[in-house]
Design goal:
This protein has about 500 residues and is an alpha/beta fold. The chain folds into four domains: about 1-165, TolB, N-terminal domain (Rossmann fold, 3-Layer(aba) Sandwich), CATH 3.40.50; about 165-300, Rossmann fold (3-Layer(aba) Sandwich); about 310-370, Immunoglobulin-like (Sandwich); about 375-495, Serine Threonine Protein Phosphatase 5, Tetratricopeptide repeat, CATH 1.25.40. The protein is about 40% helix and about 25% strand. It contains 18 helices and 19 strands. The chain has helices spanning about 35-40, 45-60, 70-80, 95, 140-155, 155-165, 180-185, 190-200, 215-225, 235-240, 285-300, 375-385, 390-405, 410-425, 430-440, 450-460, 465-480, 485-490, and strands spanning about 10, 25-30, 35, 65, 100-110, 115-120, 130-135, 170-180, 210, 245-255, 260-265, 275-280, 305-315, 320, 325-330, 330-335, 340-345, 355-360, 365-370.
């Protein structure tokens, strides 16, 4: 697919009152990159930047240098992209060009989904100082919105505030997102999402983003890939030379009903992963809110507010709760606030594990939990005591199993059998009632819940509390009509 080589807009800082012409902030607007076949065929990169340029000229707050006036600069950028010229040749160009800021941008269009991104870049440092991105049904309306957004929000006050808040902040560059499935490759999601994410990170106040357009690391990597070398070993050195502390890279996998995004933030000085996550969306239109969420998570991570938990279990597939909130099945990759968190891991047939982890930011916090099988010997022993009519011993064995494995799903049977023995054989109705009540409280989804309620009804009947017994029977018939307990309750209803 053909790409317009440079997607750049030049923005300037506004002032609260109309300045003299020579004091206006200076910018230039150049053609945007096109990231889809539809955008390329429609020349939407050129038309979008033209709309923004005209909007800024008409509004009159900035000194706009037209595309032709900075053509030599663009030519140099093209040579740098091709590896024919050193990127240092573009340093200190603002004075010669009479331009303060560049805005890099892109257009992606597929059907009724059109995404336009524009970023204001300091021409000397190549840092993003202002960013706009929007989803619309066409590029014209999106570009018109961006022009107005630049006019109203790219001000000296906002720039000074960002400079102050990000004074000691880290600098990050979006490296690349690989398309890993045929569907993702065909749709071009990788480059499109990298551009969008670049804009969303550039809009943050607590983190600096270095513009990736014409990034030498990408140019070198492209050349190496063409030569059959997949990984660019010099990328980190180039990042370090440009004072970029962190690299963001990821991959995208697109399937029929889901799009999966994996990404890592890597410290360029020691090449260690400091933050990672896995996210899923159901539609390409969800890319923009997802990029915003990712950008904020990355900012919080690099500002020591959150960290990554990488939790695995042996065997896998266990249900994981973090601070009593479901977090999916193991393995789990999730970002958490720094500090201590409670972990609960459950898997049928295995002991429940309750643990704690202290999440540290700027690192991957690994936690591997081996699970031990539930030993059912005590259950078999208790059942054997029942067969021998040694009911007191049976109750003690059931109690011992519950004490040891009370947090497992398998304990529901021990509760039920113990309640049955206490009710029918030992006539200890209060203890039986407490046991059945504990069963329904602890196991809301057990398949013997209705039977436990029926046991409670029988306890109340034996204790001459017919009102409570009748109430529970009616509840069983209404709530669990298809169960054996409901059939028994209906058959014995006249006895209450």
């Amino acid at each position: 697919m053909k790409k317009t080589l440079l997607c750049t807009i030049l923005l300037a800082v506004s002032v609260s009152v109309m300045p003299q012409e020579d004091k206006k902030d200076r910018m230039a607007v150049t053609s945007f990159n096109t990231l889809s076949e539809e955008a390329d065929l429609g020349n939407l990169g050129i038309s979008s930047s033209d709309i923004i340029e005209k909007s800024l000229i008409d509004l009159g707050r900035f000194t706009i240098r037209r595309k032709g006036e900075i053509q030599s600069y663009i030519d140099n950028l093209e040579k740098i992209q091709l590896g024919l010229k050193n990127a240092d040749a573009l340093k200190d160009m603002s004075g010669l060009l009479k331009v303060n800021y560049l805005i890099v941008g892109s257009v992606y269009k597929a059907g009724t989904n059109c995404e336009v991104d524009a970023r204001a870049v300091n021409i000397d440092t190549w840092k993003i100082v202002h960013s706009s991105g929007i989803n619309s049904f066409d590029s014209e309306s999106a570009a018109g919105y961006i022009g107005k957004d630049i006019y109203y929000t790219f001000t000296m006050e906002n720039l000074e505030q960002k400079e102050m808040e990000a004074k000691d902040a880290s600098t990050l560059e979006v490296y690349k997102f690989r398309d890993e499935t045929e569907s993702s490759i065909k749709s071009g999601y990788g480059e499109f999402f990298a551009e969008m994410l670049n804009s969303e990170i550039g809009a943050l106040r607590g983190l600096w983003a270095r513009e990736r357009t014409n990034s030498k690391t990408l140019i070198v990597e492209k050349a190496l890939e063409m030569a059959g070398i997949i990984e660019n070993n010099s990328s980190y050195e180039i990042f370090l030379k440009n004072n970029v502390g962190y690299m963001l890279r990821g991959d995208i996998r697109s399937y029929n009903d889901i799009i999966c995004i994996n990404y890592q933030v890597i410290n360029t000085s020691n090449k260690k992963v400091v933050f990672m996550d896995h996210l899923e969306i159901s539609s390409p239109k969800a890319f923009r809110p997802l990029a915003r969420q990712m950008a904020k998570n990355i900012e919080n991570s690099l500002n020591n507010k959150i960290g990554t938990l990488n939790l695995t279990t042996r065997p896998s597939g266990a249900a994981v709760l973090i601070d009593n909130d479901p977090a999916g099945s193991s393995p789990v990759l999730i970002s958490l606030d720094k500090g201590k968190h409670n972990i609960r891991v459950q898997l049928d047939g295995y002991q429940t594990i309750i643990s704690e982890i202290d999440i540290e930011p700027k690192k991957i916090n690994y936690l591997n939990i081996p699970l031990s099988s539930v030993d059912k010997k005590l259950i078999f022993t208790a059942q054997n005591f029942e067969r021998k009519k040694n009911y007191a011993a049976a109750v003690e064995s059931y109690k011992e199993f519950i004490q040891k494995y009370g947090d497992t799903r398998e304990a529901d049977v021990a509760y039920y059998r113990m309640g049955h023995v206490l009710l029918v054989n030992l006539k200890k109705y209060n203890e039986a009632l407490d046991t059945f009540q504990a069963l329904v409280n602890k196991y809301p989804d057990t398949n013997i819940r209705a039977e436990a309620y029926y046991g409670m009804a029988n306890c109340y009947r034996e204790m001459d509390d017919e009102l409570m017994a009748k109430e529970i029977v009616n509840y069983i018939i209404k709530r669990y009509p298809e169960t054996f307990a409901a059939e028994m309750a209906k058959a014995g209803e006249s006895d209450f």
